[in-house]
Specification:
This protein is α/β, with parallel strands linked by helices and 406 residues long. Helix content is 43%, strand content 15%. Strand 6, helix 8 and strand 7 (209-213) form a beta-alpha-beta unit. It is globular and about 55 Å long. It binds pyridoxal-5'-phosphate.
Length: 406
């Protein structure tokens, strides 16, 4: 007889499979003949013996393959060892961590920073530690799962405003004595940007803190990576796993906030610190991206090329101007089918399904990077146009599908 948990697991997996929502990992590898270490060629990987051009990574500037950064990681490991060896308050906090924190503060104008091993833990730690049952928190409907999880754990009362709607945000702020308003700089699944200056002004007016998850904006959107950032944003979460091409995250804010987190954030206190080698790498990646503005420029050119080719081929996109270019299909199974057909042509795009996005808004999430070659972008669009018309997908282009719920 099966145990209770075996029965539960089997039933849930069966239901997910039936709905086309089962998630499975894919083992990717590197083909050295494809010259995958060259930061100048389109990102490629090998899956089950076949090579694909990768249009689904968040390595927007192609930094994960820059030889100087591999060297920085190597040097960091030689200097400090391959791990931190302890939690930060024991012996896991080094001058490599401090140097990165200082660099991030110098770039954004915030007083202090705290490093985490991932953006997910930075967000949950921040929410869980900062808020409790006495707080009312207002957040955009599409904020990341890590923010929602942290808020749920905190016990705070969460109120959601319509995606990127100033009117809806203001209504909630006016009706509730709000501790903070939370949004993302660039939305991870839609690729659009929050109205940062306007939301900041609303927060100031209502004496609420303004918290921005800058995971997909940092190092790609100049607007929030300058000393002005701290004037608009009270707490900024930046991650190193997207445009910086490596791993980890930081919460940036006032010294008082960071001291509070150091004393109270359980994810920080009771977890092995980010390795100093990774801190050294993130510092090198931050400096590299600052020293090479042409990478951002090339990314913008690639985004513009992709959008122009899609327009010419009547491929309907969602209207994003960032590296994240969603194409809403609606049905989860059809989205998978389109993604699979693209794979048959050697093009790998993300098939994003509920619960990552609202029911009825399953989509292809195509991401552009600095490293994509123009001919690969053209091939991607040509295949997209062919596959969409072959599969006969009823395309949903209106935004209302994403405004339902998350
Ligand atoms: C908006 C947003 N915030 C936070 C995270 C978590 O960051 P990390 O991947 O470093 O855990 C992600 C990752 O997908 C994200 O998209």
């Amino acid at each position: 007889m099966s145990s209770l948990l075996e029965t539960k697991i089997a039933a849930r997996q069966h239901a997910l499979r039936e709905q086309g929502l089962l998630r499975q990992r894919k083992v990717l590898s590197v083909d050295h003949a494809l010259n995958t270490n060259a930061s100048t060629s389109s990102p490629r990987f090998v899956f089950e013996g076949r090579a694909y051009v990768n249009f689904s990574s968040n390595d927007y500037l192609g930094l994960s393959r820059v030889p100087e950064l591999a060297e920085a990681l190597h040097l960091g490991a030689q200097t400090y060892g391959v791990g931190s060896g302890a939690s930060p308050l024991v012996t896991g906090y080094s001058d490599a961590h401090l140097a990165l924190e200082r660099e991030l503060c110098a770039l954004t104008g915030h007083e202090a920073a705290l490093l985490f091993c991932s953006g997910f833990s930075a967000n949950t730690a921040l929410m869980k530690t900062l808020f409790d049952q006495q707080d009312i928190v207002v957040a955009d409907k599409l904020v990341h799962a890590s923010i929602i999880d942290g808020l749920q754990d905190s016990g705070a009362q969460l109120k959601r405003f319509l995606h990127n709607s100033l009117e809806s945000a203001e209504r909630l702020l006016a009706r509730n004595q709000t501790s903070a308003l939370i949004t993302e700089s660039v939305f991870s699944m839609d690729g659009d940007c929050a109205p940062i200056a306007e939301l900041s002004a609303l927060c100031r007016q209502h004496h609420a803190w303004f918290i921005v998850d800058d995971a997909h904006g940092f190092a790609v959107l100049d607007g929030y990576r300058n000393v002005e950032a701290a004037k608009l944003i009270d707490v900024q979460v930046v991650t190193f796993g997207k445009a910086l091409g490596c791993q980890g995250a930081a919460v940036l804010g006032s010294q008082a906030l960071i001291d509070f987190l150091v004393s109270n954030a359980r994810e920080y206190i009771y977890s092995t610190a980010l390795s100093p080698a990774n801190a050294a790498l993130a510092l090198a990646a931050t400096q590299y991206s600052t020293a090479h503005p042409e990478l951002q420029q090339k990314l913008l050119e690639n985004i513009a090329l992709f959008k122009q080719l899609c327009r010419e081929a009547n491929v309907p996109l969602l209207g994003s101007d960032t590296a994240i270019q969603p194409l809403i299909i609606g049905d989860a199974r059809q989205t998978l089918q389109v993604a699979e057909e693209l794979r048959a042509a050697g093009i790998w795009v993300g098939a994003i399904r509920p619960p990552t996005v609202p029911v009825g808004s399953a989509r292809l999430r195509i991401t552009l990077t600095t490293a994509h070659a123009a001919e690969d972008i053209a091939a991607c669009v040509a295949q997209l146009a062919q596959v969409l018309s072959r599969v006969g997908v009823p395309l949903v282009t209106e935004r209302q599908a994403t405004d339902d719920h998350r």
